[in-house]
Design a protein that fits this description.
about 475 residues; alpha/beta; binds adenosine-5'-triphosphate; binds magnesium ion; globular; 2 domains; Rossmann fold
Length: about 475
C-alpha cells in the first residue's frame, strides 16, 4: 500500500532536529575525501579483478560456428563445415561437449575469413574495403554533455569494426579512462597517454622556432625536462595491445587532465604552434595511420583542449545524444561552441597567413553526424521525429535503441559483442546486437563513402598532373 493510501504524510514532514543531529555523523574534513577515494579504489579493484584471467588480463570470449556464419563470415553453416573438413590446416575450433558446437578465437575467425576471401566466391565481400595508399580514417565521438553514450558508441563501433576485419586503434582522450578500462588498458601516468605526443609536437615546434631565433640573433627559449623527454618518445611506445587481436589502445588516466593546464601555457609561449595538428601529425609521423584502418577517439564531456585536438584530427565526427529535450538543447549549444571555437582558430590563423602570403586554414570533416542513442521508441518517437525534421540529414536516420544488454553484461564493463549470447534471452540478444550492428553499418557507409571520395580525388589529381 502507498503511504498516501495509508493516510501518512510525505516523508519530509515532522522531522525531528534532535534525531537528525544524532544520525548526522561527524563533520567532514579534507582527509574524508581521501578515505572515500580509498574505499572506491578498493571496491573498484575488487570489481575489476572479477572475471579476469589468472594473470589479471582480460580475455576475449570464443565465437561459435552459428555466430560466425550468421554475423562474421557470410557463408552457410554446412559449407563452412565442409571447407574446414577439406582444409585440415585451417583452425578447426573446439567444442565443450563431444560433438557439440565448435568455438573459435577471434584470431582464428580472422584467419578463416582470410581463407574464404582468397578461395571463396569473389562476389561476396569477405574482407572490408579500404583503398590502397590512403591513410586510416579517424572517427571522433564527442558531445560536451555527459552520459549521452559517447564511450558506449565508440567502444561498440571499435568492436564491430574489428569483427568486420578492420585493424583498429582506440585512443582515449578522457581522463576518466572508461574506454581504457573497457579494453583492459594499464596506464601508470600521463607518459602512457597521448600527452607525450602533444608535448613532442610542441617541443619540435619550439626547436624550429629556436633555430629562427638564433638566426635572428635572439636567445633561444629553454626546452625543459618534459619537452626534452617528449622528443624521445614515439607513438608506438604508447600503443598497448588489448584482449582483441585487432584492437590496440592508447589509454588514459586521471593525470591526462594535466594536459588541459599545460597546453594553454605552451600556446602562450609558442604562438605559432599548430596545436590542432598534434594528433594527426603524431600518428602519421610514426606510421600508425598506415598500420591501422580506423582510429576511434573517445573524448571527455567537455570542450577542452583534448577534445579540440580530437575533433581537429577527426575525419568523421559523431555526436551522440538522447532523444530528450535537455540533450537536444545542450547538443545545440555544443554545435554553437564548436562553431565559435573552430572559427576563432581559423580567423586567428588566417590573419597571420594573409600577412605572410600563406594559404589559410580551413578545417574540414568528411562527415558530421548526430546519432540518437538509448532510444526508446515507445516514449521518444515524437521528439525524435521533431529532431529529425529540424536537423535533416545531419541526424543519422538510424536510432540506437536502449538495450538492457549494456551495463548488465556481467560485473565488468563489457560490450554487447563481448557478451556470450547464451547468457541472454535470444530475442533480447538479437535485438540489442541488431541496434549496434546498425550503428556500425551507418558509420561504415560514411567511412566507405569518404574513402571512395578521397580515392577519386587522388586519381583526378593524378590525371591532371599527367
Ligand atoms: N544503447 C544503450 N542502451 C542502454 N544503455 C546505454 C546505451 N548506451 C549507453 N548506455 C548507458 O548510458 C550510460 C552512459 O553511457 P556512456 O558512458 O557511453 O556515456 P558518455 O557520453 O561516454 O559519458 P561521459 O560523458 O561520462 O563520458 C552508461 O551507463 C551506459 O551503459
Ligand atoms: Mg565517456
Amino acid at each position: 500500500m502507498k503511504a498516501e493510501a495509508r493516510g501518512e504524510l510525505p516523508p519530509y514532514f515532522n522531522l525531528d532536529p534532535e534525531a537528525a543531529e544524532r544520525i548526522l555523523g561527524h563533520a567532514a574534513d579534507t582527509a574524508e575525501f581521501a578515505r572515500i577515494a580509498r574505499a572506491c579504489a578498493a571496491g573498484r579493484d575488487d570489481l575489476a579483478t572479477r572475471g579476469l584471467e589468472e594473470d589479471g588480463r582480460r580475455s576475449l570470449r570464443l565465437f561459435s560456428t552459428w555466430e560466425i556464419t550468421r554475423y562474421l563470415i557470410p557463408v552457410a553453416q554446412g559449407h563452412f563445415r565442409r571447407v574446414l573438413k577439406q582444409n585440415p590446416e585451417l583452425p578447426q575450433g573446439r567444442s565443450e561437449t563431444e560433438g557439440g558446437a565448435k568455438w573459435f578465437t577471434l584470431d582464428e575467425v580472422l584467419r578463416l575469413r582470410a581463407h574464404f576471401a582468397a578461395e571463396g566466391s569473389k562476389a561476396k565481400n569477405y574482407l572490408p574495403w579500404r583503398p590502397e595508399g590512403l591513410p586510416a580514417k579517424m572517427v571522433a565521438v564527442a558531445n560536451f554533455k555527459g552520459g549521452v553514450g559517447k564511450t558506449s558508441t565508440a567502444a561498440h563501433l571499435a568492436m564491430s569494426a574489428a569483427l568486420d576485419g578492420y585493424r583498429v586503434l582506440v585512443i582515449d582522450l578522457d581522463s576518466q579512462g572508461s574506454m581504457t578500462s573497457i579494453f583492459g588498458g594499464r596506464v601508470e601516468d600521463e607518459w602512457q597517454t597521448v600527452f607525450p605526443l602533444i608535448a613532442r609536437h610542441y617541443a619540435r615546434h619550439l626547436r624550429s622556432e629556436n633555430q629562427r631565433r638564433l638566426d635572428r640573433g635572439e636567445a633561444p627559449l629553454p626546452l625543459d625536462d618534459t619537452l626534452s623527454e617528449a622528443l624521445d618518445t614515439s607513438a608506438r611506445t604508447l600503443v598497448q595491445k588489448t584482449h582483441w587481436p585487432n584492437i590496440d589502445l592508447i589509454g588514459a588516466q586521471l593525470n591526462l587532465y594535466w594536459a588541459e593546464f599545460q597546453i594553454p601555457v605552451w600556446r602562450m609561449q609558442g604562438r605559432g604552434w599548430k596545436l590542432w595538428d598534434t594528433l594527426t601529425d603524431g600518428l602519421a609521423a610514426d606510421g600508425l595511420l598506415d598500420e591501422y584502418d580506423i582510429v576511434f577517439l573517445d573524448t571527455p564531456p567537455a570542450l577542452g583542449y583534448l577534445t579540440i585536438n580530437g575533433l581537429a584530427a577527426a575525419d568523421i565526427l559523431l555526436v551522440p545524444l538522447g532523444a530528450s529535450f535537455l540533450e537536444f538543447d545542450s547538443t545545440g549549444r555544443f554545435f554553437d561552441m564548436l562553431h565559435s571555437t573552430f572559427s576563432s582558430i581559423e580567423e586567428a590563423e588566417n590573419v597571420a597567413a594573409r600577412a605572410l602570403g600563406r594559404e589559410g586554414l580551413a578545417f574540414q570533416w568528411d562527415a558530421v553526424r548526430a546519432v540518437i542513442t538509448r532510444y526508446d521508441g515507445t516514449q521518444q518517437a515524437e521528439l525524435a521525429a521533431l529532431m529529425q525534421a529540424y536537423l535533416g540529414p545531419v541526424l543519422s536516420p538510424h536510432r540506437q535503441d536502449y538495450t538492457a544488454l549494456i551495463g548488465q553484461a556481467g560485473e565488468q564493463v563489457r560490450g554487447i559483442y563481448e557478451a556470450d549470447y547464451r547468457d541472454f534471452n535470444r530475442e533480447t540478444y538479437a535485438r540489442g546486437r541488431e541496434t549496434f550492428d546498425a550503428t556500425y553499418a551507418a558509420l561504415k557507409q560514411l567511412l566507405l563513402g569518404s574513402w571512395r571520395r578521397d580515392q577519386r580525388e587522388a586519381s583526378n589529381a593524378g590525371e591532371a598532373a599527367e
